[in-house]
Amino acid sequence: MTKITILLATLALTSAFAPAAHASDRSAARTGAAWLSTAVKPGADGMAADAVVALRAAGRLPSAEAARRARALRAGANGYARTAGATGKTILALAAARSGSARCAGNVDLLTRLQSYGRAGRYGSTIFDQTLAMLGAHALHAGPSQRAITVLLKARGAGGWNFNMTRSGGRADDVTSTAMAILAARAAGVSAGNGTLRAGLRWLRAQRTAAGGFALGRRDRNEANSTALAIEAAAAMGSRDTRATHALASLQRPGGAFQFTRNDAGSRVLATNDAVVALSGHHLPVTTLHRTPSRC
Fold first, then answer.
1. pLDDT, position 169
2. How far is the C-alpha of 134 from the C-alpha of 198, rounded, in Å?
């Protein structure tokens, strides 16, 4: 496949039908993206991959920078993409970069590697392996399979989803896992009217903090990452969570970066990567292909 054909095949935004972000939210996303573009250097780890997705969502990824970041992702992919989740995340970033094939990293066929992690529709042992693998397959116009969708839907626990994808015992259901499950299922074509997704979203909304946002396993503070993913999940289901959006925007600091909570900076890169996508009005996967790329 030629470079031109690949580029032409990359331009579908899956969030095109999501509720539109307000101008102030888009402005906050662009400011956050400007901070990310200097704070996160090209690389092949998870933060570097997430930054490419966030920059694309905010419309702050010039072609030269996209090419530079895509080269770095490919150069380190063989070492980083050693789990289903990391492979899926690399694919999502290369699709967002729109520079060369999102399937190929040198001699590494990322789709083949991703598929090798799947066993009877299950990828790895965590919700992130499962959902990022499904999102990556969708971004490449190569799935996910119906078995993967069934595994994900059946893994819903008492209310939402949990890190270990267990229906009883183990970890408690949490906002972040539930949001990721909704995003992956919706990208895979599961209807917003699906009973399992609607029940999961109701449970997620019931975890809202008094200040309007969300957190992981608690309700006494807003956390940027959980709040951002909850906003994305709502958008994927066709609604706009105004309270959560306001709560997330309040965590932005001078200079553009977002912090983990009001009183804890945490990882500003992680917080800003998630916040930029949510406030830009997009949700994962930010970019998908119109056709599956050729083998590497």
1. 67
2. 19
Cβ atoms of 256 and 245 closer than 8 Å? no
Q: How far apart are CA 223 and CA 266, in angstroms?
A: 10
- Give the separation between CA 246 and CA 21, rounded to whole angstroms: 12
Distance, in Å, from the CA atom of 179 to the CA atom of 204, rounded to the nearest integer, reads 8
C-alpha distances (whole Å) from 282 to each of 57, 62, 214, 275 are: 6, 18, 18, 11
Residues 6+ apart with CB under 8 A from 204: 160, 175, 178, 179, 182, 214, 230, 233
pTM, to two decimals:
0.92
Q: What is the pLDDT of residues 225-248, one digit of tens each?
A: 999 999 999 999 999 999 999 999
Angle (CA) 133 244 125, round 5°: 25
Handedness of CA 244, 245, 250, 251 (dihedral sign): positive
Residue type, 206: A
Place of tokens 């951002």: 228
Supply the Cα-derived Rg of the chain in whole angstroms.
18
How many CB atoms are located within 10 Å of the residue 195 CB? 9
How many other CB atoms are found less than 10 A from the CB of residue 128?
A: 22
SS3 state at 226: helix
CA distance 6 to 149: 27
Q: Which helix (H) or strand (E) holds 104?
A: strand 104-105
